[in-house]
Write a structure and sequence with these properties.
The protein has about 375 residues and is an alpha/beta fold. The strands form 2 sheets. Strands 10-9-6-7-8-11 form a 6-stranded mixed beta sheet, sandwiched between helices. About 50% of the residues are buried. Helix 4 packs across helix 13 and helix 5 (about 180-190) packs across helix 6 (about 195-205). It has helices at about 35, 45-65, 85-100, 110-130, 180-190, 195-205, 230-240, 245-260, 265-270, 275-300, 315-330, 340, 345-355; strands spanning about 1-5, 10-20, 25-30, 75-80, 105-110, 140-145, 150-160, 165-175, 305-310, 330-335, 375. The protein has 13 helices and 11 strands. It starts with a strand and ends in a 5-residue tail after the last strand. The longest helix is centred in the last third of the chain and has 29 residues, at about 275-300. It binds 5'-O-[(R)-(carboxyoxy)(hydroxy)phosphoryl]adenosine and zinc ion (ZN). 5'-O-[(R)-(carboxyoxy)(hydroxy)phosphoryl]adenosine binds near residues 182, 184, 197, 198 and 315.
Length: about 375
């Protein structure tokens, strides 16, 4: 079965053609990063307009790279939510219209479930090539960590109908304020570093001392598997405000605006050692928190497998720390490749494939949901 996936929940217009839920025949992502960069964050109205311009060419490009026509597609999978409503609607309405015109089945997919399936998809293909590789299996604990989400799930597999597996998700915790990627982006903005902040901080942190600034562990009342990053972001702000770091950030911002583009080495040259130390210390605190709570969840659920996915899963320190800590506990930790960690449509097609197998089709009443929690919440005393 060949599925056309469509994703437009935030600032990436994406389409992918995926065979049998695992072989990516084509995956095309049109990023709006440059459009939003000068605002230091995604501007929803601009995002929807850009999706409108890009959706048809991106779908065509995916089909042409896959060497398939729209008529040869067996089914469509579109992101139904959560996300920016205007952005979601563009992909969803386009997918619905296409399904109707082609007379093909359609499924709506939760974006977070898509991120989890990015791990499965690549692991299945990798294991076909090298069967000795560990299996990204179920049950597992999945951390979805991006610019819009930071959530922990206990994911289980069950036979939905006949031989086709369905998945059950229990939400163990989630952020109460900023998502981790959002905190990276906001800290980068307040330091005048540019957008998106995550990849910049990731690289700049290599030149700083992560222990130069002390940010204590983030304390959570109630559910210890919830997250909160706004306090840490404010703590960074207090270290900057009214100090030499603030004037440095303003100068850097003005330099970036005037220069138009800022190659990484030049950006680094415009950062004092103190700024580099602050960036490294902030990153260290975020990653320590993500790793600690995720491993605590894995222990509480008694699973041997951890999935880490979403844009922040590209972070090099996060990958390093997870690999080390999981190794010490005898856990297997899996990440998608960087291209599948950030938003893409292959993950939507892969998650949609299983919904199609279980006959979970959408009809023309399918609509977008800005907020759509995945699975059921569980209060845990872990
Ligand atoms: O999954 P994604 O493409 O979109 C959302 O669903 O939000 O994630 C984008 C987020 C941004 O906040 C970006 O700064 C962050 O992922 N990000 C990173 C890195 N690469 C992307 N954060 C930390 N380190 C990175 N290397
Ligand atoms: Zn995402």
């Amino acid at each position: 079965m060949v599925v056309l996936g469509i994703e437009s929940s935030c600032d990436e217009t994406a389409a992918a053609v995926v065979s049998r839920g695992e072989w990516i025949l084509a995956s095309v992502v049109a990023s709006q990063m440059n459009l939003h960069a000068r605002f230091g964050g995604v501007v929803p109205e601009l995002a929807s307009r850009e999706h409108l311009l890009k959706i048809a060419p991106v779908v065509q490009e995916a089909c042409s790279r896959a060497g398939t026509s729209l008529q040869q597609i067996d089914a469509l999978a579109v992101t139904e939510g959560p996300g920016l409503i205007g952005s979601l609607l563009v992909g969803l309405v386009y997918g619905k219209a296409l399904a109707q015109a082609l007379g093909k089945p359609l499924v709506g997919v939760n974006h977070l479930e898509g991120h989890i399936h990015a791990v499965l998809l690549e692991n299945k293909v990798a294991r076909r090539v090298a069967p000795g590789l560990p299996e990204a299996g179920f049950p597992n604990v999945a951390l979805v960590v991006s610019g819009g989400h930071t959530s922990l799930f206990h994911a289980e597999s069950e036979m939905a109908s006949g031989e086709s597996p369905g998945f059950r998700y229990t939400r163990l915790g989630q952020t109460r304020d900023d998502a981790a990627g959002e905190a990276f982006d906001k800290v980068a903005k307040l330091l005048g570093l540019g957008y998106p902040g995550g990849p910049l901080i990731d690289r700049l942190a290599n030149y700083g001392n992560p222990h130069a600034f002390t940010f204590g562990p983030i304390k959570m009342r109630g559910n210890p598997l919830d997250f909160s990053f706004s306090g840490l972001k404010t703590a960074v702000l207090y270290r900057v405000r009214g100090t030499a770091l603030q004037s440095e950030a303003e100068e850097r911002q003005a330099w970036r605006r005037a220069a138009g583009s800022a190659p990484f080495d030049e950006l680094r040259a415009h950062c004092s050692q103190q700024t580099l130390d602050l960036v490294a210390s902030f990153q260290h605190a975020v990653i320590r928190d993500l790793v600690t709570r995720t491993l605590q969840a894995a222990e509480a659920c008694g699973v041997g497998c951890v999935f880490v996915t979403g844009g922040v899963a590209c972070n090099s320190l996060l990958r390093e720390r997870f690999a080390e800590e999981a190794g010490l506990r005898g856990l297997h930790v899996f990440f998608p490749s960087p291209a599948l960690s950030t938003d893409n449509a292959a993950m939507i097609a892969a998650a949609g494939y299983f919904k199609l197998l279980s006959g979970n089709f959408a009809d023309l009443t399918l609509t977008a949901h800005a907020s759509w929690p995945l699975g059921v919440a569980r209060a845990t005393s872990a």
